[in-house]
Amino acid sequence: MNRIRIARASKECANDRTQIDKHLGEITLSDPVRLADYRRTKGGVYFDRHELRRLLDVYSRRVMTGEWKDYAIDHQSGRAIFSIFRHTFDSPLFAIAKRREGKRCAYQVFCGPQKIKQSSTIEGALSIFDKELREIPSYRRPR
């Protein structure tokens, strides 16, 4: 019983293979593919070399202190996002977004959904990370 099924299956595969070969034989050079249909649209926003150097400088200093562990770079419509993670499988701790506003670019720093800084330069936006974070002592009432 199993031998009959295997024989039928192999005949069906052979028939499918010949149909595929016939179909591939119909492709000719007279049917060109338009590469323009597969090109990216113009106007994408990306980080340039200077911006990436500045982002990775801030990131590497925080990695050395053990605060951050991973990063990701995303390119969405009209913006580029550098996300910073404390742990690999967490949601981003911070996200630095570059958006195009006309001919100029704006940089925004997000902590979760909250925008914590906006600037027209990458240095201005990343200045929030240059400040040393310190623990604020809690106030205890005398009893």
Q: Can you walk me through this structure?
A:
There is one protein chain. By secondary structure, the chain is α+β, with helices and mostly antiparallel strands. The protein has helices spanning 2-25, 49-64, 122-130, and strands at residues 70-76, 79-85, 94-101, 104-111, 114-119. Strands 1-2-3-4-5 form a 5-stranded antiparallel sheet, covered by helices on one side. Strand 2 (79-85) and strand 3 form a beta hairpin. The radius of gyration is 27 Å and the shape is elongated.
Could you give the order of strands across the largest sheet?
1-2-3-4-5
Shape: elongated
- Uncertain spans: none
Helix content: 25-40%
Could you give the count of β-strands?
Answer: 5
Category from helices, strands and their pairing = alpha+beta
The span between the termini is 89 Å
Mean pLDDT: 79
Strand and helix order: HHEEEEEH
Outline the biggest β-sheet: 5 strands, antiparallel
Strand coverage percent = 25-35%
Number of domains: 2
Rg over CA atoms: 27 Å
Please tally the helical runs, counting DSSP H or I stretches of 4 or more residues. Answer: 3
